[in-house]
Amino acid sequence: MNLILLGPPGAGKGTQARRLEESRGLVQLSTGDMLRALVAEGGPLGQQAKDIMAAGKLMPDSLMVEMIGERISKPDVSKGFILDGFPRTVAQATALDTMLSEKGLKLDHVIEMQVVDDILVDRITGRYTCAKCGKGYHDRFEQPKVQGVCDACGSTEFKRRADDKAETVSTRLEQYHQQTAPILPYYRDRGVLKSVDGMADIDEVTRQIEAVLAG
Ligand code: AMP
Description:
Layout: E1 3-6, H1 13-24, E2 27-30, H2 31-41, H3 43-55, H4 61-71, E3 81-84, H5 90-102, E4 109-114, H6 117-125, E5 127-130, E6 136-138, E7 158-159, H7 166-180, H8 183-189, E8 193-197, H9 202-214
Parallel strand pairs: 1-3, 1-4, 2-3, 4-8
Antiparallel strand pairs: 5-6, 5-7
The structure holds adenosine monophosphate.
Adenosine monophosphate is lined by residues 9, 31-32, 35, 52-53, 56-59, 64, 85-86, 88, 92, 163, 172.
């Protein structure tokens, strides 16, 4: 089964994708994570990605399409994948269709996670993760049980994304509405789009997604 989780930054795509990895053995393909790995490696492309991400803008379509094209050619995606953060433009969506049909693959579901902008700003600006195991926390909504110690692995190191600052978040939301939201009618016309309430609690969102997958 191949899925797209679509929604604005902070909608919970990564959280739900990780749950689907565990429950269904699908592979999460997060273009944001791929780009952050590129930044960590250094090099000219990493530097370009770092600057564009810090500004809250989008990377060029050609590069993103190539990145995903290579990734979905690897054998580990044969059980199915969850695209998280791709496509982000109509050009990426059409290129994805071409790549999938060339590989004899299809999209089973496109799930839109709906969340209003005010909530997204609060969610994004307070979030951080354990530097060791990646468990997510939030300054106001989900602190570790023991202050400064990860509940899952006991690490005392945490990190925040460089682009989760309030100034950058408003540009990221603007980009979503201008560049990414036009993808919704594209998939609606193809009959694969379903929406879930991304403002519900995490377990309820998972239930709604499972209902779409079962339907
Ligand atoms: P994310 O982790 O999905 O929020 O992505 C973080 C940043 O990476 C975005 O704000 C963009 O700058 C860049 N990015 C990730 N995916 C894409 C994509 N499909 N197209 C263009 N830029 C992307």
